[in-house]
Amino acid sequence: MMLEVKNISFSYTKEPFIEDISFNIDSGELVSLLGANGSGKSTLFSIMSGAIKPMRGAVLYNGQSVHAMEQRARAREIACIYQRTDCAFPFTCYEVAEMGLYPHKRRLNDGDRKFVLDIMDMTDTIAFRDKLICNLSGGEVQRVLLARALAQKPKLLLLDEAMSGFDIAVRLRMIALLRRLISETGMSVIFIRHDIETAFSDSDRIIALRGGAMLYNDKPKELLNKQFFSDIFNVKAEITDCGFRVMNIDGRG
Amino acid sequence: MRRYVLFYIIMAAAAVAVMLIGISSGAMEISAGEVAKVILAKLTGNAEMSRGIADNITAVVWHIRMPRLLCGMLTGCGLAAAGVIFQGILQNPLADPYTLGISTGASFGAALAIYINIVSGIYMPVTVFALISALLTLFAVIAIAKRGSSFESSNLIIGGIIVSAVLSSGVSMLKLMSGENVGAIVFWIMGSLSASAWKDVYVLAPVVSACVIFSAVLSRRLDIMALGDRNAEALGVNVSGTRLIFLLLGALITAVCVSVSGVIGFVGLVIPHLLRMRLGAKNTALLPAAAVTGAVLLSVADNITRLLPSGEIPVGVLTTLIGGPFFIYVFLKRR
Known about the structure:
The complex is a heterodimer. Chain A has helices spanning 41-49, 71-77, 93-98, 110-122, 138-151, 168-185, 196-202, 220-223, 226-233, and strands at residues 3-10, 18-25, 30-35, 56-61, 64-65, 78-81, 156-160, 188-192, 205-210, 213-218, 236-240, 243-247. By secondary structure, chain A is α/β, with parallel strands linked by helices. The mean pLDDT of chain A is 90. Chain B contains 14 helices and 2 strands. In chain B, strands 1-2 form a two-stranded antiparallel ribbon. The mean pLDDT of chain B is 91. Chains A and B meet through α2 and β6 of A and α9 and α10 of B.
């Protein structure tokens, strides 16, 4: 067991926002976290990353609480990409990707630089290594951030809608890259996403939230049913041979 | 790498040139050779080297122009480095050493000391008052911005604006109460190096150099913080702790600079910006480069104000008068 989420609860106001969520992630798994807007995905994400503390429960990484780990030690194990990242200063893409090595070492040598460039090559960002991050499109920035996260050499990668800006070809290439890294290094990936179609085709497991509670935690093919779509997204779904088709709850598609 | 080497060679040459040309010119013309001899004699403690040079020349070089030049360099160095620091921790390229109201705090302390001097005749040391008031302002801003154990940049900016507004009304009040002696307060706030003495150098030199060096050592953390608090935390930077350390370093630099020389504007905003365009955003390179450039540029500016044929103007007025339009020009050209 790599990550154990145990009875997590959290609230912003008096009302509980996340209630009693528990699940485990094994090493080498790609897990998608689905849910409608405001279902608690991002809050759960922040708790798993160690950024905010749960009010009850614990998140254990290899048996150790992520909230008690020393920050740099945690950054050597767990990498995060957040939904929105702005940069107020003219850093180049290479400089941003290189920041991923910060938890590992302060002084970089030529081998480290080559390592970062190799990762930029894998993430299709090498072409804009000298461009300024503030001049890139949303999808390009996300790829640079993915390069930075991979430069952290993480065992667990947390992505908060990190592929929402990718076109379909890039998305497939990046998923294939993650798959390759998963099989080579045993890394696990937890992935908040709204691209439900691809989530069903490429995840090992889907965890789905509604109103701060975990309703489903299963393999994609087990969840491919009408009940799932109406519970989680409040839409009607038609299950077809090649997947599913969704429409409004009143039947208009 | 080569552009940095070239940059530092140019800056070192410029610093020596400013020293020799600046100190030799003025109401009393002294040759550059004499300036060099006096400085070397004083530095090495070997009086033989300045033999044949009149005592009054030695006095002007060593006791009037030299401390002023050093104060200019140290203040410029400090303000430019503090600019990089504040822009970094506030994650805002528009921040400068004065954004958090530390300069207004120093001005208030100075104005208060000058006011007491005027009305009661009791001598109050203006620099000490300015320094204490600047540091109290910093603590007030920190107290306002603190939420639990964390400092968000927007809270710091809001705290700075509020405290600054209150104190600047205080300064206005003191000016009003000073009546016809208001000139002394106004002149102090304008920012001038004309009253610089060795005692100021002794305050500035250790504080500015220690804080700038320490900040430069930690500056990689400022890079990581540029992508926002959450990203920096995820990369293993303790954002609140780092922000507090840099806040104290930047504020200490600003407080001593302003207490010695008044409010010299624009150095802390323009120099980090211009250098970022040339050298890139990495603070590890930017911070030392800004410190050196600030030192050279402010001492050049001060020598210009000192040597104006129409009589001296405060250097703070000149830096803003020239720096502002120059900045606009560079900004527009870049787009």
